[in-house]
Design goal:
Elements: E1 4-7, H1 11-22, E2 27-30, H2 39-42, E3 46-47, H3 57-81, E4 88-89, E5 92-96, H4 100-109, H5 119-124, E6 133-135, E7 139-140, H6 143-156, E8 160-162, E9 167-173, E10 176-182, E11 185-188, E12 192-194, H7 200-207, E13 221-232, E14 241-244, E15 247-251, E16 256-260, H8 274-287, E17 296-307, E18 313-316, E19 323-327, H9 337-348
Parallel strand pairs: 1-2, 1-12, 2-8, 5-14, 12-19
Antiparallel strand pairs: 3-7, 4-7, 5-6, 9-10, 10-11, 13-16, 13-17, 14-15, 15-16, 18-19
The protein binds flavin-adenine dinucleotide.
């Protein structure tokens, strides 16, 4: 039997799978869709939380630890798969933030380098920012390529992918998940990891349908839609990320620029609107008037897994000994994925975690 079954093959599920293959475990990844085609694909790939000074410390801890693991991962993926995830130190120009002084102090206290913004970059702007902040050592990754590389890497390590297979429920026997009910039939399970992103609140309810508790109280993970556009800019025109009031432009190596994003609703709706497309293009044209002739190639949306506290749930279930979870990474799932995966595997395998696990626990008082 598979040692570990992970439901949800987004960045989080795949990173957990990678940790387990390092241990020589037999791993099955199940996804209702194709692997890596939901939020993890839709995201921008910026490896730095927006407004870090306002983020819970528990999120920033995962971020900083993940960043120490990224270089080795990228090198390993490239060597094994020859797919380049385009891990780039783009730098981040922040044109406006809620409190520049606070952010600047936060950077100093956390060892995030700031310096004078490059004049060439400032000269391209269609506005004159009052107190721009330049963070030269901020990275990005081209997330669709990272996911493709990870999937190929895991396939080479004999991970079984069951795509287009939806978890619909579980059969429980003596405080253990005994079988998974899926659209591909009943599956045996040794240990189940729930890594189903924005669907985790709903899936948690599917797992425990007969117990009455308020919606999402057990695991309050809910969808938060973000819409994005991509334009094809001239190659080499922009090589730094620009952020203003929560909206950003992320330049890729080939000249494409990702512009995002919105923070919308709490429903499972991925529709896109002309209004948002116009707002995002206006934002881009205002900041970089040279791009006025560039056309929008594509618009899409993704569902971020939001939580009320802003902190993901990572840990082992207190009642069901072979159930654990890793979900609710909201806007930071790519940047915190490596440490989140390692933390969960440390906990399941009863190794001492390098990160204090308590902030990520499911609240016991919410158990039914
Ligand atoms: C527009 C946008 C921009 C973003 N930008 C960034 C950024 O720049 N940097 C950053 O760090 N983060 C960013 N994020 C956030 C990041 O993308 C998410 O936090 C992260 O992708 C969450 O990963 P996940 O694996 O938990 O979720 P997902 O990638 O959504 O994966 C969950 C998977 O579970 C599957 N699933 C759900 N239910 C079931 C079921 N019942 N049975 C089987 N499979 C199921 C889904 O099909 C899906 O593939 C952004 C997100 C969006 C939407």
């Amino acid at each position: 039997m598979t040692d570990i079954t992970i439901v949800g093959a987004g960045i989080i599920g795949m990173m957990v799978a990678r940790e387990y293959t390092d241990l020589g475990a037999s791993v099955t990844l199940i996804d209702k869709n194709l692997a890596g085609h939901e939020a993890s694909w839709a995201g921008g790939g910026m490896l730095f939380p927006i407004n870090p000074e306002q983020q819970p410390e528990a999120v920033m801890r995962l971020f900083f630890e993940s960043m120490t693991f990224f270089p080795k991962l990228i090198q390993q993926l490239y060597e094994v798969t020859e797919i380049d995830p385009e891990w780039l130190m783009s730098g981040l120009l922040i044109l406006q933030s809620d409190d520049v002084q606070l952010l600047s102090t936060w950077c100093q206290q956390n060892g995030v380098i700031t310096s004078q913004p490059p004049t060439e970059l400032l000269s391209k702007l269609g506005c004159q920012p009052k107190e721009p902040l330049w963070l030269p050592e901020i990275y990005q990754v081209r997330n669709p390529r990272l996911l493709r590389a990870l999937k190929y890497f895991l396939t080479l390590r004999n991970v079984t992918f069951m795509e287009n297979c939806t978890l619909t429920g579980v059969k429980v026997k003596r405080q253990r998940i005994d079988k998974l009910e899926t659209t591909s039939g009943l599956l045996p399970v040794n240990h189940l990891v729930l890594a189903t992103g924005a669907w985790s609140g709903d899936n948690y309810q599917k797992i425990f349908p007969d117990k009455a508790y308020p919606r999402y109280m057990g695991m309050d993970v809910f969808p938060v839609k973000g819409q994005m556009i991509v334009v094809k800019g001239p190659q080499g025109y922009l090589d730094s990320i620009i952020l203003q009031d929560g909206q950003y432009m992320i330049p890729r190596k080939d000249g494409r620029i990702i512009v995002g994003s919105t923070v919308e609703s709490m429903v499972f709706d991925k529709s896109i609107t002309t209004e948002v497309r116009e707002n995002l293009t206006d934002f881009m044209y205002r900041l970089l008037p040279d791009l006025k002739k560039c056309v929008v190639e594509h618009q899409w949306s993704g569902l971020r897994p939001g939580t009320i506290s802003g902190i993901p749930f990572i840990g082992c279930h207190q009642e069901y000994e072979n159930l654990s979870f890793n979900c609710g990474h909201f806007r930071n799932g790519l940047s915190t994925s490596l440490a989140s995966a390692k933390l969960l595997v440390d906990l399941i395998e009863k190794r001492s975690p390098t990160v204090d696990p308590s902030p990520y626990e499911l609240n016991k008082s919410n158990f039914h």
